[in-house]
Specification:
- 2 copies of one chain form a homodimer.
- With 179 residues, the first copy, chain A, is mainly α.
- Chain A has 2 domains: 49 residues, Arc Repressor Mutant, subunit A (Orthogonal Bundle); 119 residues, Orthogonal Bundle (Tetracycline Repressor, domain 2).
- Chain A has 9 helices and no strands.
- In chain A, helix 4 packs parallel to helix 7.
- Chain A is elongated, with a radius of gyration of 18 Å.
- Chain A starts with 5 loop residues before the first helix and ends with a helix.
- At the A-B interface, helix 8 and helix 9 of A face helix 8 and helix 9 of B.
- The first copy, chain A, binds a DNA duplex (30 and 30 nucleotides) through helix 1, helix 2 and helix 3.
Chain lengths: 179, 179
DNA sequence: ATCCTAATCGGATGAGTCATCCGTTTGGAT
DNA sequence: ATCCAAACGGATGACTCATCCGATTAGGAT
């Protein structure tokens, strides 16, 4: 993002916001389509992002940041609440779920951001375990994957994120984590 | 399958087995590719299956049958075992997981087979609840979705289905279902 | 056995997407 | 003001998709 010529930076930003737009509409990313939406040449998109995966990952960085903010803002005894919010985010954004679950990102930075996130989740988890609210013997990665799993199920079954059925699924996970 | 001319039946079978083949190799189904692999005209594939989704669903019918067989063979106190086997199947076959989780199939028969399966799972669930091994208040659909969720997580994270990490995830679900 | 026709086949083809390549433009250093 | 490396953009060949229709075939009628 730095050391980038001014036009390059502008276009990169345009591309990312166009991609956000398209993703939001549920349309599936094509680098040509993104170029059209961003009003930028196809070549430009391909120079900034060699593959769709790269673009997807960079877009998801924002979601990582968002969750990070939630972690900052959540008060004490936050484990359950965070998990619910996390799941809600994952349900809303399939890409976030996809990138989060996958351990092998294309971009090294994705991997490091994901690792950082797991680190923060581990703190929350440790608190909850110390407070006797979560059983010991589960690690943050497991919690992350469980969140991805329920989120995927909720989305696939087209359940409203706050429907009774969706809550019931999350409830099972929560109970399964209790001491 | 009945009332089909002999050549039509032969081709339909070829197409299905070619599709199985491709899916098994993880390649993603294209109706033209299937035609090539089945050594059949493209038009033939499109007459038998209007869309990829249809073909996918019909292929998955076999998986439904397989799980049904498992349900027959499992002895008493079978809830945990069945769930584990079910998850293993779902991990192995992404298509099975996809079709299972989705309530709106393209083909009516898929929906009815799915419903039938949920009915059988409900029996097993009821047994387990009667035996005090599973808490009341969860329904078979929830169990099905949870299975799809963990399966998805395991596959995405590329965990070996019998690795400690994978077992841990299933364990959380199982515990979450206990009374 | 032969004919007849509706059912089925197959692949040529127009439409649409993908990703590269290269001539043109532009930012910004000197 | 000049220069050139960096960045742009879009024309294009390669590839996939799914339709359409002339050729073929199964299998019942005669």
């Amino acid at each position: 993002m730095d050391g980038l010529r001014r036009d390059a930076a502008r276009n990169r930003a345009r591309i990312l916001s166009a991609a956000q737009e398209l993703i939001g509409r549920g349309e599936d990313l094509g680098l040509n389509a993104v170029a059209r939406a961003a009003d930028v040449g196809v070549g430009t998109v391909y120079r900034h992002f060699a593959t769709v995966e790269e673009l997807e990952e960079v877009v998801v960085w924002d979601r990582f940041a968002e969750l990070d903010r939630m972690l900052d803002e959540a008060g004490p005894d936050r484990f359950d609440r965070i998990l619910a919010q996390h799941v809600a985010l994952l349900v809303a954004d399939p890409l976030f779920e996809k990138v989060t679950a996958q351990p092998n990102a294309v971009l090294p930075e994705t991997t490091s951001r994901r690792t950082a996130l797991i680190g923060r989740l581990a703190e929350v988890l440790a608190e909850a375990q110390a407070g006797g609210r979560v059983r010991r013997g589960v690690d943050a990665t497991a919690v992350l994957l469980l969140a991805c799993g329920v989120a995927h199920a909720i989305r696939s079954a087209q359940l409203a994120p706050d429907s009774a059925a969706a809550r019931a699924l999350l409830e099972v996970i929560l109970r399964g984590l209790r001491p």
